[in-house]
Design brief:
Elements (H helix, E strand, L loop, with lengths): L5 H7 L9 E5 L11 H7 L4 E6 L17 E2 L6 E4 L5 H7 L5 E5 L10 H15 L3 E4 L11 E4 L14 E3 L4 H8 L3 E3 L25 H10 L19 E4 L6 H6 L6 E8 L11 E8 L7 H15 L9 H6 L3 H8 L13 H4 L13
Parallel strand pairs: 1-2, 1-5, 2-4, 5-6, 6-9
Antiparallel strand pairs: 3-4, 7-8, 10-12, 11-12
Helix pairs in contact: 1-2, 3-4, 4-5, 6-8
Length: 368
């Protein structure tokens, strides 16, 4: 099945958005099916696009995590490029003074602590303050739209890796999420269903450390390792699929294999990150190999890995303050510090319809 994205539909039918000067919040993932940048396609369709706004990693994606490219001129369109990363309130409002309508077209990966949805949220709130329409050009959730995993973000733990109470793996498209979080017009997908296993669309790595669809699927779980003293694989060719530290020995992988976790196989590996944690040091650990994407449970798998590490390496394994923000509360950190089983923190398996607002329409006519 081939999916038609919101960007493709708008390029084919410019009347889908309100009149006025358009500002596009986008990056290198904002492309049409033939990989033409959305900005180029919209201008070719005659839409009055006047400015571009980039998120974390920048419009072109050259910046690593926690950075952006700044401002300049887009060589493809000649339009000015403004940097939204970590801007909020009046500073963000001022960026949008030269446009009448804000469009959003960035590929998300369905995980709460991936920052693109919070760029959307901040810009959506700015549009509301300014009384300007906010339009999301929807894209598929590459993790599908059936399964929800992990806890809701708890009050007091809001940050740029979680602004609002949504599950860790939320199961929504960016358009559906925008409707949950505020007021937005959505140029909807065509041909996508909640159970879609493929889209027919090309995979564009949505950030420098998200190279493959497998990386995206493990990320809701192994992204939690950013809140530990283990390397989460940044600085390798398989970030988030490769986890390790100098103190991990030959006991780790057999312990993981003994658990019989669904959809994943574990292989002992050695690596030397070229940047981030343990850069230039020899590291021992594990690579996760997905053998059944439908059966794999990324959050449960990561919690089991954390439990085993806590038991095998009590003098070396350590947690970082960022873990609370990633998890969305302090319950995971406290469970590990107490030697409790973190898997017991997982809520029962659920679906998007179980946590979304009852008045907001989801794809396939699903409400609740």
């Amino acid at each position: 099945m081939v999916v038609r994205t919101g960007a493709q539909r708008l390029a084919e039918d410019p009347g889908l958005v309100p009149d006025g000067r358009l500002g596009l919040i986008t990056n290198f993932t904002g492309v049409l099916p033939d990989l033409t940048p959305t900005s180029v396609g919209l201008r070719a369709a005659g839409l009055p696009l006047t400015a571009l706004f980039g998120p974390e990693h920048g419009l072109r994606g050259t910046a690593q995590a926690g950075a952006s490219e700044g401002e300049g001129v887009d060589p493809d369109t000649g339009l000015p490029v403004f940097d939204t990363y970590r801007r909020k309130g009046r500073e963000l409002d001022d960026l949008f003074s030269g446009v009448d309508v804000l469009l959003f077209d960035i590929q998300d990966i369905g995980t709460r602590f991936y920052t693109y949805v919070w760029t959307m949220y901040d810009c959506q709130r700015a549009a509301a303050r300014l009384g300007k329409p906010f339009v999301v050009l929807d894209r598929p959730n590459p993790l599908g739209g059936v399964r929800v995993e992990g806890p809701m973000l708890q009050p007091g733990f809001e940050s740029f890796v979680g602004r609002a109470p949504i599950p860790l793996r939320h199961g929504l498209t960016v358009g559906e999420l925008a409707r949950q979080l505020g007021t937005a017009t959505v140029v909807e997908l065509e041909g996508w269903t909640r159970s879609s296993s493929g889209t027919g669309l090309p995979w564009v790595p949505p950030s420098p450390n998200m190279p493959t669809p497998d990386t995206a699927l493990v990320y809701p779980g192994t992204g939690l390792f950013e809140g530990t003293n283990l390397s989460e694989g940044r600085g390798t060719t398989r970030p988030f699929e490769t986890i390790g530290a100098p103190y991990v020995d030959d006991r780790f992988v057999p312990a993981l294999r003994s658990l019989g976790l669904p959809g994943v196989a574990f292989r002992r590996t050695w690596f030397e990150p070229v940047f981030s944690k343990y850069a230039g040091q020899a590291v021992s650990g594990v690579q996760l190999h997905l053998v059944d994407r439908e059966a794999f449970e990324p959050v449960r798998t990561a919690l089991e890995m954390l439990r085993v590490l806590n038991e095998l390496y009590p003098d070396d394994f350590a947690l970082l303050p960022s873990l609370d923000k990633l998890w969305g509360s302090d319950s995971l950190r406290k469970a590990l510090e107490a030697g409790d089983d973190p898997v017991e923190l997982l809520p029962a398996a659920t679906t998007p319809a179980a946590w979304t607002r009852s008045d907001v329409l989801l794809y396939e006519g699903t409400t609740r």
